[in-house]
Specification:
Blueprint lengths: L2 E5 L2 E4 L4 E8 L5 E9 L6 E7 L6 E4 L7 E6 L4 E6 L8 E9 L5 E4 L3 E6 L1
């Protein structure tokens, strides 16, 4: 019922920036956490960043390889999550996926189709 749609990917030079968006449509009232994952060709999917807003507070977390470069945020009015990516490196090249955790299941069972980020040297 709830769908996630990523956007904002593209081709960028090393050192450049991109801003990814993940819009949740439908009845998304049960979502309390969202996250970004990425998967490069020939590699396993890895965690990038997450944001959780349950319990009246909002917390965020980051993988070590993006700390200081990426920033996750959420716009409640637009029901959209963002990932601001600065100082991009060629190794950041991957398909980036949005995921949502619901109170009903307690797991990341909602996924977008992904948006491709390519960073050239």
């Amino acid at each position: 019922q709830v769908q996630l749609v990523e956007s904002g990917g593209g081709l960028v030079q090393a050192g450049g920036s991109l801003r990814l968006s993940c819009a949740a449509s439908g009845r998304a009232f049960s979502i309390y956490a969202m996250a970004w994952f990425r998967q490069a060709p020939g590699k396993e999917r890895e965690f990038v960043s997450a944001i959780r807003w349950s319990g009246g507070s909002t917390t965020s977390s980051y993988a070590d390889f993006v700390k200081g470069r990426f920033t996750i945020s959420r716009d409640n009015a637009k029901n959209t999550m963002y990932l601001q990516m600065n100082s991009l490196k060629p190794e950041d090249t991957a398909a980036y996926y949005c995921a949502a955790r619901t109170a009903i299941t307690g797991s990341y069972d909602l996924w977008g189709q992904g948006t491709l980020v390519t960073v050239s040297s």
